[in-house]
Write a structure and sequence with these properties.
Structural class: alpha+beta
Strand content: 15-25%
Helix content: 40-55%
Oligomer: single chain
Strand order of the largest sheet: 2-1-3-4-5
Number of strands: 5
Number of helices: 10
Length: 224
């Protein structure tokens, strides 16, 4: 059955207009982006197939062009549109972070990091460099590793902090396994970075570990 044949209150677009985007499921939101289905499948059916195939929206967003285009009804045009939407979301969140105090915007920080690092196939270590008002000066991916580990050099982090005149930092890295629970190695690395940055008066405000749809904060866990 085509979406146009559904009761009006169940159609994704009408539902969004009446109740807001938060009322829609992942599949319904994705269906609005897809706009149309394929023979025998509505846009919602197609959206459900995509989420089932990739496991989550986060993994779908991180899919390569080849992986995305393997799916029935998907092509380069849709892939390009999706990447444009994601990049606009990242830039909007980045602008919001740069305008205000990062510590007072934990949800924005989490959303930004999840969009940037969630679903990546290899470990990425990122640092948000902050000024004295905790506004973001810049966000930089400093180290990239394998599927299981990344080599992070405290000296390089200190060097970049001094170069951009940062007063504080927020650390972040992803776990390609999808499990966001901090490892013992993560804790040791955080301690080493705190010591190194402390020598030049730069505070470590938090360290986020990004998993599949989950973000864990060291500060909230009392690990700092």
């Amino acid at each position: 059955m085509a979406i146009t044949d559904w009761p009006e209150g169940e159609r994704p677009r009408e539902k969004l207009l009446a109740r807001g985007a938060a009322a829609l499921s992942d599949a319904e939101l994705l269906a609005i982006f897809l706009r149309t289905g394929v023979t025998g499948k509505s846009a919602v059916d197609l959206a459900r197939d995509l989420i089932t195939k990739f496991g989550s929206l986060t993994s779908l967003f991180a899919a390569s062009e080849a992986e995305f285009c393997e799916m029935l009804g998907m092509g380069q045009a849709k892939f390009v549109q999706l990447q444009a939407v994601l990049e606009m979301s990242r830039r909007a969140l980045s602008e919001e972070l740069k305008r205000g105090d990062a510590l007072n915007s934990p949800k924005v920080v989490r959303n930004y990091l999840q969009l940037l690092l969630g679903g990546r196939p290899q470990e990425v270590f990122l640092v948000l460099f902050l000024d004295t008002q905790h506004r973001v000066i810049t966000a930089e991916e400093l180290f990239h590793g394998t599927l299981s580990q990344t080599s992070v050099y405290p000296r390089e982090v200190v060097k970049r902090a001094l170069a951009v005149n940062a007063a504080a930092v927020i650390l972040a890295h992803n776990h390609p396994s999808g499990v966001a629970e901090p490892s013992q190695a993560d804790r040791l690395l955080t301690d080493a970075l705190k010591q190194a940055l402390g020598l030049v008066d730069v505070r470590v405000l938090d360290h986020f570990v990004i998993g599949a749809g989950q973000t864990i904060s060291f500060a909230e866990r009392g690990l700092l």
